[in-house]
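Incident review: delayed structure delivery

Summary: a single-chain prediction request sat in the queue longer than the usual turnaround. Root cause was a stuck worker, restarted by the on-call engineer. No data loss occurred. The affected request and its eventual output are reproduced below so the record is complete for anyone auditing the incident later.

Affected input:
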Amino acid sequence: MSELVSKGVDLVIYGMGTVFIFLTLLVFATQFMSWLIQKGAPVSTGTGSADGEDPALLAAVAAAVRAFRSRHKN
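Output delivered after worker restart:
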């Protein structure tokens, strides 16, 4: 029975180690991709309102939400 428990513990250690290494590599890969995106991000041209929102787009979204809610009243 102790050999079976020993093999089980070995399997748990190998499995958890593999998952830990994979997740660590995934974190580093995600950080690297984020860094690449930030380096290549376009510079803002300053168009639109002060918050960077387009008033015409906001009006269109508000109208669409009103129309949706008027059709789907409970």
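Verification: The helical segments are 2-40, 55-71.
Action items: add queue-age alerting; document worker restart procedure.
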